[in-house]
């Protein structure tokens, strides 16, 4: 909590890259949660399921 904050325009992944040795556990979590997913399969699956639920044939649910 005593660490100074980073500027909003800076890249948090670069900050974690230089400070990972100081905070190894938090750096692993940051790597996991700040990175973009490698594919869009999950989001496409969600839209596909939503499209089959909300269509003209089932509009009277």
UniProtKB/TrEMBL annotation:
Pfam family, one: Dimer_Tnp_hAT
InterPro entries, alphabetized: HATC_C_dom (IPR008906), RNaseH-like_sf (IPR012337)
Protein name: HAT C-terminal dimerisation domain-containing protein
Molecular-function annotations in GO: protein dimerization activity
Every HAT C-terminal dimerisation domain range: 3-61
